């Protein structure tokens, strides 16, 4: 099986440079300009100063005083994404787009998979003026690791033997599927790298981390049987948080704000908008209640999301002690675009 993972380099920043060539070779961050704003994408020049995605903007500016901040544009990146990935689809291989700037292609059967990948990379640069990194391997997990190894404009091939060596040295935070919480729990167990993870038994991982645990067991051995599924779509995006029982409204309000912030960031990063907002609570008796509202226009941005979530929460909450609060957005539209014509 030949799986290719393609990942556009510093995508939002690269599109901004395309639209305004004066920004070329400058330290640039795309993201929120207000004090609470976060960096959505940093150009490679900005990354040299330590600026990276998801970093608060004030921190980015203190690391890089010359940083040029460009606000995230609505719709534009989705439009470019559609053009680039629409072009890649024309090669006729199965393609699964996993975010606004990333896709897997199953190029099994290609006469020369590496040459094909290089052609795609060169043509994307020539036709759209955008650089893309490629990773070629025998499964999704390693293809994604490969595309990340030599950015920007990288091209990396990982075969089985090399795959096993690479995984051993991989910090656990780089292993797909390991989120912050899982990473923290693994570190408590003294597990920091792929090699450490190899020491854990399947049953132990299953008991400790459920289904994801068995997946980790496989991944770290270079096994990933996931197929490239062209039609696969994310159904919802959001966060859920459990905490010691409380009825503090101030606490709920603060957690909702944080959820709205995280969810809005993820949606922006992935180029997704959604029409339905859902708030979920779990009471001390483990009763779960949810309330949703669907809007005629997509709910975008942290402020709008918080406003709607807070209204739903207020109509749902009766003053009892809670142990869980969740916020999610569904009825999603990927690569949302306002039909701007500029390319
Ligand atoms: Mg990218």
Automatic annotation (TrEMBL):
EC number(s) from the headed UniProt entry:
2.7.7.7
- Reactions it catalyzes: DNA(n) + a 2'-deoxyribonucleoside 5'-triphosphate = DNA(n+1) + diphosphate
The primary location reported for this protein is cytoplasm
Q: Does the keyword Nuclease apply?
A: no
Please tell me whether the keyword Metal-binding is annotated for this protein. yes
State the Pfam families in the record.
IMS (PF00817), IMS_C (PF11799), IMS_HHH (PF11798)
Location(s), subcellular: Cytoplasm
List required co-factors: Mg(2+)
Query: Could you say which residues bind Mg(2+) here?
Result: 7, 101
GO-annotated molecular function: DNA-directed DNA polymerase activity
Note on how the cofactor is bound: Binds 2 magnesium ions per subunit.
Judged by the first EC level, this protein's enzyme class is transferase
Q: Where is this site: Substrate discrimination?
A: 12
Catalytic residues of the enzyme: 102
Where would I find the UmuC domain in this sequence?
Answer: 3-179
Gene3D superfamilies, per database record = 3.30.70.270, 3.40.1170.60, 5' to 3' exonuclease, C-terminal subdomain (1.10.150.20), DNA polymerase, Y-family, little finger domain (3.30.1490.100)
* Keywords for the protein's UniProt record, in alphabetical order: Cytoplasm, DNA damage, DNA repair, DNA replication, DNA-binding, DNA-directed DNA polymerase, Magnesium, Metal-binding, Mutator protein, Nucleotidyltransferase, Transferase
Q: Which HAMAP family does this one have? A: DNApol_IV (MF_01113)
Function field = Poorly processive, error-prone DNA polymerase involved in untargeted mutagenesis. Copies undamaged DNA at stalled replication forks, which arise in vivo from mismatched or misaligned primer ends. These misaligned primers can be extended by PolIV. Exhibits no 3'-5' exonuclease (proofreading) activity. May be involved in translesional synthesis, in conjunction with the beta clamp from PolIII.
Give the family, as the similarity comment puts it.
Belongs to the DNA polymerase type-Y family.
Task: State whether it acts alone or in a complex, and with which partners, per the record.
Answer: Monomer.
NCBIfam families in UniProt: PRK02406.1, PRK14133.1
Q: What is this protein called?
A: DNA polymerase IV
Name its species. Answer: Aedoeadaptatus acetigenes
Name of the encoding gene: dinB
